[in-house]
Write a structure and sequence with these properties.
Layout lengths: L25 H11 L7 H19 L23 E7 L2 H8 L5 E9 L8 H4 L7 E8 L6 H12 L7 E2 L2 E2 L5 E5 L2 H16 L10 E4 L3 E3 L7 H4 L4 H6 L1 H10 L15
Parallel strand pairs: 6-7
Antiparallel strand pairs: 1-3, 1-6, 2-3, 2-8, 4-5
Helix pairs in contact: 3-9
């Protein structure tokens, strides 16, 4: 019921999965979308009304799984013990939305969209899209642990960034590259991540089992330039309106203490 199909196959109006091979050739289409930096130039009112209607439908379908407050992690690193800048690598569906949301989090200093889980040689969008590389679309989050802890980032990840109960998919996008995964960079991150998943599972926070994988970080490879800050450059792109802007709205509404209005962009650094 919650699957969204394309209402318009033109590059300016992609509402459904970015990888629906039955509807269009996803890889070339998405590159064209990104390079053209599309805007709603024609039939603005018609498309805007349609987007709003679908957005309301999508939010209604997923409201039980995400976009709500969940318990904070019982195991975490206290701010008093934190030193220096730290990095978290997370995967949870399309990296456009993950990057865009975490760029609005207080204490985050940089968010890069990229690939993790596979080799450097295959860390290219066209190859990752074949779903044979082991990569997941991911984000590398650089943060100040004295302002926001690793555990607090995971709380946002599980509650407003994506639906952790979806296996090898997220919303309209499906395949292993859209899986939910935490790539830990240290034993401390591993301990916090595993303890938090166990805590959420025991508390039965989600109706369905958590599908998030937890594995060591072997490498993170930045995505192509045209993917970076995509949400910032294309706020009216219907895929963004439907799937990604609600993440930022949920962050602001559910966790106002972690929200900041001005996004920290890759281009600004």
């Amino acid at each position: 019921m919650c699957g969204l199909e394309l209402l318009d196959k033109s590059p300016e109006f992609v509402l459904g999965s970015r990888h629906d091979h039955h509807m269009f050739t996803a890889n070339s289409e998405k590159r064209e979308i990104a390079r053209r930096r599309p805007a709603l130039r024609n039939d603005v009112m018609r498309k805007a009304v349609t987007a709003i209607a679908i957005l309301a439908f999508a939010l209604n379908c997923s409201a039980g799984a995400v976009n709500r407050d969940i318990p904070g992690p019982a195991v975490d690193t206290p701010a008093a013990e934190a030193t220096g800048s730290q990095v978290a690598v997370l995967a949870g569906g399309c990296f456009w939305g993950l990057q865009g949301m975490f760029e609005h989090v207080q204490g985050v200093t940089k968010v890069v969209a990229g690939y993790s889980g596979g080799s450097r040689a295959t860390a290219h969008y066209e190859i990752v899209g074949t779903e044979t590389t082991g990569h997941a679309e991911s984000v590398e989050i650089t943060f100040d642990p004295k302002q926001i802890s690793y555990g607090q980032l995971l709380r946002l990840f599980f509650s407003v960034a994506h639906d952790p109960t979806q296996l090898n998919r997220q919303g309209p996008d499906s395949g292993p590259s859209y899986r939910s995964e935490i790539f830990f960079a240290s034993p401390t991150q591993e301990r916090i991540a595993k303890a938090y998943v166990a805590q959420l599972t025991q508390a039965k926070v989600f109706v369905s089992p958590i599908a998030t994988k937890i594995e060591p970080l072997k490498g993170f490879y930045p995505a192509e330039d045209y993917h970076q800050d995509y949400l910032i450059y294309h706020p009216n792109q219907p895929y963004i309106v439907i799937n990604d802007l609600p993440k930022i709205d949920a962050l602001k509404r559910v966790y106002p203490e972690h929200y900041r209005e001005a996004a920290v962009t890759v281009a600004a650094r």
